Hints:
CATH architecture of the domain at 40-157: 2-Layer Sandwich
Order of helices and strands: EEEHEHHEHHH
Number of strands: 5
CATH class of the domain at 40-157: Alpha Beta
CATH topology of the domain at 40-157: Nucleotidyltransferase, domain 5
Helix content: 25-40%
Low-confidence stretches: 9-14
Structural class: alpha/beta
Mean pLDDT: 86
Number of helices: 6
CATH superfamily of the domain at 40-157: Ribonuclease H-like superfamily/Ribonuclease H
Shape: globular
Amino acid sequence: MKRMGIQALYRKPNTSKPAPGHKVYPYLLRGLAVTRPNQVWAMDITYIPMARGFVCLVAVLDWFGRKVPAWRLSTTLETGPCIEASKEAMRRHGKPEVMNSDQGSQFTSIDFIKTLKDADIQISMDGKGAWRDNVFVERLWRTIKYEELYLRAYDSVSAARESLCRYLAFYNSRRPHSSLDGQTPDKAYLKPSTPIPVAA
């Protein structure tokens, strides 16, 4: 198709565009050494292909321990699941000092920003088109896709939710990370024995 100069006519997914009038916050993590749990959390959205159509996966990630403290599966790109995931993560694990996201309309929305400000959390956003600013979430998506999504063809939203629930429980509690010196995310998050050098 590239050689012939043709392309498919379909709407390409793009979750990273701010809505007109929404405020974009500066990126706060450049050069920051992340040395403890709950210092920096990140959020993002990715598309989950199914046998027919797709759903959206929202995840919160602790930068230090790579733990996923909360996630949501949704059939839309609305802000609600992002707020629900962030509130669940805070309810279960406390709150981060900084929350980082891209400039997507969900994360620049008035309601999402209010959720963070009400919890007195600093807001950080990736630069436009700068996926490396949130590299740990991008690595999470790559891991989930290669170890779970590409091996499945979910035939329903409930099947996708059930399978992802199993995988993310495994990811947090049993999957060792080379970047964590062989620890699992749960172990690194709950019992950080020595600081793990993490610099953005």
